[in-house]
Amino acid sequence: MASFIDMSRVPFIPGRLHATNSPYQRYGPKGFMEIKVLGNDSLYVRVDLPGVPDDAIRYRVDAVRQKLVFFSGEETLRDGVKAEDLREYSGSAGLGCDCCEITGVDAKMKDGVLRMIVSRVKVKDHDNKCTRFVPPNAGKSGRYGYQRSSDERYLYDVRSFNIEDILEDHPFVVKGRKDVLARQQRTSDGSFHFSVDMPGVCSDDMFVLPNENQIKFYGENKEVYEHDESCRIFLGAVDKTSCCSSYGIPLLSHDIAWDAEFGVLNIRVSPPPPPRNNNNNNTE
User: Fold this and answer.
1) What is the pTM of this model?
2) HSE (CB half, 13 Å, CA atoms) of 9?
3) Fewest 10 Å CB contacts: which of 100, 150, 238, 265?
4) Which range (117-126, 172-181, 240-249) has the least confidence?
5) Are 32 and 170 in contact (CB under 8 A)?
6) According to the model, what pLDDT value does residue 120 have?
7) Domain segments of the chain: what residues?
């Protein structure tokens, strides 16, 4: 299946980074969260919660002020992941004004992304269109604090500063890892496990492309939801020095297996079995 991937579609300029929420995102909407006003004055809220099962999200509206939607969820245990590394999410989104109240929420969790349509009604009359949201920095997630061009579509040059200093931690992780790439310790059989977040990408649209030097991974959410501006494309690699059981054993001699679920790609690199001893000891 990998031979059908058209890599020419993947935007990439060496030394450039598309979004600060993921070093592997090459295209599409940025940020762990996005809030925007729809034509009917409802709010569209997108929240990346990779690893949370589709039926395991919880949400509720603040019953007192009717301004916020609280959401939470947890990852499920899987092979190669320690229980203490499982992520728990908790956060809120909604109105930052005094003139509106939430009247309803239509929520859907799919492939590690929570999408909500938040209906609201004005309780105080005014002529201005209300655009005050919570959290107030929702529109800044994924975007640089360093402007390198007057064209907002331009990818920013990261060669002048440390990329680790501008990558964001996930703001809604209250327990577990906050990085988009999880490097796990080797298991007792010498296997190396790592996971990559690709929120919004289903398992059928994630691919692993190993060669003699590295393990490349690719994902694209081909199903673009109604209120998303475009698809999202992810592309990255892990060097062989990080996952080979021995420097003397070629990477492609290892057993490389992967699976994907709830917007997370899981890869396992296992060493080849030891060579058989063909020497026969004959007894007289």
Assistant:
1) 0.86
2) 12
3) 150
4) 240-249
5) yes
6) 95
7) 2-270
* Sign, CA torsion 255/216/248/194: negative
pLDDT in tens, 57-67: 999 999 999 99
pLDDT, position 151? 47
CA distance readout (Å), 7 to 3, 4, 21, 221, 240: 10, 9, 22, 15, 21
- Other CB atoms within a 10 A radius of the CB of residue 144 amount to 17
What top-level class would CATH report for the domain 2-270? mainly beta
Q: Picking from 10-19, 162-171, 244-253, which range would have the lowest pLDDT averaged per residue?
A: 10-19
Residue linked to tokens 């592309």: 235
